[in-house]
């Protein structure tokens, strides 16, 4: 096998695993006065005030009775709520069939990719799982501390499953990651932080969770361990895992930039020991392109996306968004903001002209500055929201 091309992120020190308890999505859910909240803020007293403000976003989406439009809040619950059922320990993971199916890794990789695409993924790539991208401790709900077998429906916590409660260490011992990208309806996202964009985000997260669970179940039925990772049950940081698998590159905006979907996507993955042929990392020229393009940063209403240089974060040099500023803005909106995903020049519909422009951006570096300029001329420098369609308002 030829040596793998290196991913385009720059490792400049010792890689450190990330604690999921430090994510804004874990901190916003800390219940004031709970043992978890007290433990966390004893470790991080400097975050008490900011975490109280973060909690406002979750209050906005978790209390439909307090919403300006209860029908919108109901829609949010209907799209995001059931994903938690796909997060159960014996749904993301589970019993492995006793008989192993052995196959050529290249053939098996092709079969897995075909399956994932048929189930609904827009792109699938396979890479090594770097243990540095495994979360160190569990921080976001749902937690499964009390999860018990209930045959024949639930088999309980499978052997080796980790991260049952807040603060539990997480281990993912697998060698490979099958990473899947799911595109979003760009027009719904262009409504810009509305119930319509939330609906689309929830729809795609739901699909991605289901496909990840189905692919993992297929692999276990072939006799190999496999665990799904999706919105409601991540064991790994999906963006660097996706970069290692060659699904795209990390952009200035903090999202993976995919050559066809741009930043307008959601990710899910399956980790496994099933022997699979690996894909090489991809160099699209995104690091250079983002140096010349600040469109996400200049359009970000919260100032969360840096306009300056990369910084070193846990051993990797990269552009680092400020997730607190971003989530506080979501709280202000009462919806997830989508602006950076849709203004990115890479997030265009997959028409022939757009695909040709993407190929020029990838293969003709001297023209990248011109392409940034042209994108501003054709699509404007500022985000302009689309009027929401009549559906799904009630
Ligand atoms: S989602 Fe919105 S607020 Fe958050 S980084 Fe992107 S543009 Fe900024
Ligand atoms: S908008 Fe421009 S700077 Fe931001 S991620 Fe996309 S290409 Fe990079």
Write the SSE topology.
Elements: E1 10-11, H1 24-27, H2 35-43, H3 48-62, H4 70-80, H5 89-92, H6 105-119, E2 123-128, E3 176-183, H7 186-189, H8 195-221, E4 226-229, H9 238-244, E5 249-250, E6 256-257, E7 265-272, H10 286-292, H11 295-299, E8 311-313, E9 316-318, H12 323-333, H13 339-343, H14 352-363, H15 368-379
Antiparallel strand pairs: 1-9, 2-3, 3-7, 4-7, 5-6, 8-9
The protein binds iron/sulfur cluster (2 copies).
Can you offer a commentary on this structure?
- The protein is of the alpha+beta class and 394 residues long.
- Helix content is 38%, strand content 10%.
- Helix 6 (105-119) packs antiparallel against helix 8.
- It starts with 9 loop residues before the first strand and ends in a 15-residue tail after the last helix.
- It binds iron/sulfur cluster (2 copies).
- One iron/sulfur cluster (SF4) binds at residues 251-253, 289-290, 293-296, 343-346.
Rg, rounded, reads: 21 Å
Low-confidence spans: pLDDT under 50, at least 5 residues? none
- Spatial gap, N to C terminus: 57 Å
What does the overall shape look like? globular
The major sheet is characterized as: 4 strands, antiparallel
Strand fraction equals 5-15%
Strand order of the largest sheet: 2-3-7-4
Mean pLDDT: 94
Number of helices: 15
Helix fraction, binned, reads 25-40%
Structural class: alpha+beta
Q: Which small-molecule species are bound to the chains here? A: iron/sulfur cluster
* SS elements, strand count: 9
N-to-C SSE string, H for helix and E for strand: EHHHHHHEEHHEHEEEHHEEHHHH
Q: What's the structural domain tally?
A: 1
């Amino acid at each position: 096998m030829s040596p793998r091309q290196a991913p385009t992120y720059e490792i400049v020190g010792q890689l450190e695993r990330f604690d999921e308890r430090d994510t804004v999505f874990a901190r916003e859910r800390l219940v004031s006065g709970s043992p978890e909240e007290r433990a966390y803020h004893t470790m991080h007293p400097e975050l008490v005030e900011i975490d109280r403000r973060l909690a406002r976003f979750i209050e906005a989406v978790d209390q439909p009775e307090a919403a300006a439009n209860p029908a919108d809040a109901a829609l949010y619950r209907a799209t995001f709520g059931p994903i938690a059922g796909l997060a159960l320990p014996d749904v993301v993971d589970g019993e492995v069939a006793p008989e192993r199916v052995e196959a050529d890794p290249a053939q098996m990789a092709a079969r897995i990719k075909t399956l994932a695409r048929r189930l609904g993924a827009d792109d699938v790539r396979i890479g090594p799982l770097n243990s540095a991208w495994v979360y160190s401790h569990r921080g976001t709900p749902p937690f499964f501390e009390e999860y018990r077998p209930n045959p024949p429906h639930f088999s309980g916590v499978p052997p080796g499953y980790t991260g049952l409660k807040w603060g539990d260490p997480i281990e993912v011992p697998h060698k490979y990651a099958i990473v899947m990208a799911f595109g979003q309806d760009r027009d719904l996202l262009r409504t810009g932080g509305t119930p319509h964009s939330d609906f689309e985000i929830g729809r795609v997260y739901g699909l991605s969770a289901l496909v990840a669970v189905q692919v993992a179940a297929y692999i276990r039925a072939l006799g190999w361990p496999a665990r799904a990772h999706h919105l409601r049950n991540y064991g790994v940081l999906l963006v660097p895992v996706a970069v290692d698998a060659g699904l795209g590159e990390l952009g200035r905006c903090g999202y993976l930039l995919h050559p066809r979907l741009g930043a307008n996507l959601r990710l899910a993955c399956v980790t496994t020991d099933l022997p699979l042929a690996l894909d090489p990392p991809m160099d699209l020229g995104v690091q250079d392109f983002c140096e010349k393009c600040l469109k996400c940063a200049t359009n970000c209403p919260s100032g969360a996306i840096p306009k300056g240089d990369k910084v070193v974060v846990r051993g990797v040099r990269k552009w680092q968004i400020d997730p607190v500023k971003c989530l506080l803005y979501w709280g202000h909106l009462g919806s997830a903001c989508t602006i950076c995903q849709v203004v990115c020049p890479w997030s265009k519909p997959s028409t022939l002209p757009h695909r040709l422009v993407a190929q020029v951006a990838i293969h003709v570096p001297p023209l990248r500055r011109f392409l940034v300029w042209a994108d501003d001329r054709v699509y404007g420098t500022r985000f302009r929201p689309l009027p929401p369609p009549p559906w799904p308002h009630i």
